[in-house]
UniProtKB/TrEMBL annotation:
Any single Pfam family the record assigns to this protein: DUF5131
InterPro entries (alphabetical): DUF5131
Protein known as: Phage protein Gp37/Gp68
C-alpha cells in the first residue's frame, strides 16, 4: 500500500529536465502559477489521528513525499524543519522522495540525522550527462541510508559508471510524458542497464515516455500505457 504526501506545492524550473514539467502542465489547466510554493492542506498528513488516537496513515505504508514540488525547494525552507519532525515521528512508515536539488540537502537538516533515517529514501534525478556529473558526486558523499538514481526524463545517453557501487540501491529510467515530450532512445535505456549489470546495481525501466525510439522506429505511446509498456519490455535487473 502507498499514500501520496504533497505537503507543499509549486517549484521553479532549474534544469533541462524541468522544461515540460507535468506539474506545470496540470496547474496551467487550472489557472495556477506553479512557480509559487505554498503549503498544502495535507501538510500534517502523517501525524493526523483518528478519534481513537491512532494514526490515520497506518504503519507499514510507503509515503510518496512531495511529488508536486521538491522537498528541498528554497520556498519551503521555513517549513522543512517541521516536515522532518513529522517524518521522524513516524519510523513505522517508509518515506520516499525525489529531488533535483540534492545540493540543498543540508538546508534545515535535523541535528540527529547522523548517517540518515533508516525509513527515508532520497532519490536523485538526472536527465543528461551534465546534471549527472554535477548532482551525483554530491549525492554520493551525502549521509543517506537509501539512495536511488532516477534517470528521468532521459534526454540523452548517460555514463554512470563512476557513480555505481553498493551504496546505490537502484537505477530507474524513464522517458518524458506529455504532448511536447522529447524522444527517449531505447538504446540509451539499454546502455544504462548494461552499466548497472556490470556493476551489479539493480535496474528498472519504469516509463517509456510519450515518444520512444526503438530499432529506428518512433513509437508514440499514450500516457496510460507508458508504465505498462516499460514493464512489458522485461529488462529490469535484480541481483
Amino acid at each position: 500500500m502507498a499514500v501520496t504526501w504533497n505537503l507543499w506545492h509549486g517549484c521553479q524550473k532549474i534544469s533541462e529536465g524541468c522544461r515540460y514539467c507535468y506539474v506545470y502542465r496540470q496547474d496551467e489547466m487550472h489557472g495556477k502559477d506553479s512557480s509559487l510554493v505554498t503549503r498544502t492542506a495535507l501538510f500534517n498528513l502523517p501525524v493526523r489521528r483518528k478519534r481513537d488516537k491512532t494514526y490515520k496513515v497506518p504503519a507499514g505504508e510507503m509515503v510518496y513525499t512531495c511529488f508536486t514540488s521538491d522537498f528541498f525547494v528554497p520556498g519551503a525552507d521555513e517549513w522543512r524543519t517541521e516536515a522532518w519532525a513529522m517524518i521522524k515521528e513516524r519510523p513505522d512508515l517508509r518515506f520516499f522522495m525525489i529531488t533535483k536539488r540534492i545540493d540543498r540537502f543540508r538546508v534545515a537538516l535535523p541535528e540527529d540525522w547522523g548517517e540518515g533515517y533508516e525509513h527515508v529514501a532520497i532519490a536523485c534525478t538526472v536527465e543528461n550527462q551534465t546534471m549527472a556529473d554535477y548532482r551525483l558526486p554530491i549525492y554520493k558523499e551525502l549521509p543517506i541510508r537509501h539512495k536511488i538514481i532516477i534517470c528521468a526524463p532521459l534526454l540523452g545517453s548517460l555514463d554512470l559508471t563512476a557513480y555505481l557501487d553498493a551504496s546505490i540501491e537502484e537505477v530507474s529510467v524513464g522517458g518524458e510524458s506529455g504532448l511536447e515530450a522529447r524522444t527517449c532512445n531505447y538504446d540509451w535505456v539499454l546502455d544504462i542497464r548494461r552499466q548497472c549489470v556490470e556493476k551489479e546495481v539493480p535496474f528498472g525501466f519504469h516509463q517509456t515516455g510519450a515518444r520512444l525510439l526503438k530499432d529506428g522506429k518512433l513509437y508514440r505511446i499514450r500516457r496510460e500505457f507508458q508504465h505498462s509498456q516499460a514493464r512489458r519490455a522485461g529488462i529490469d535487473y535484480r541481483k
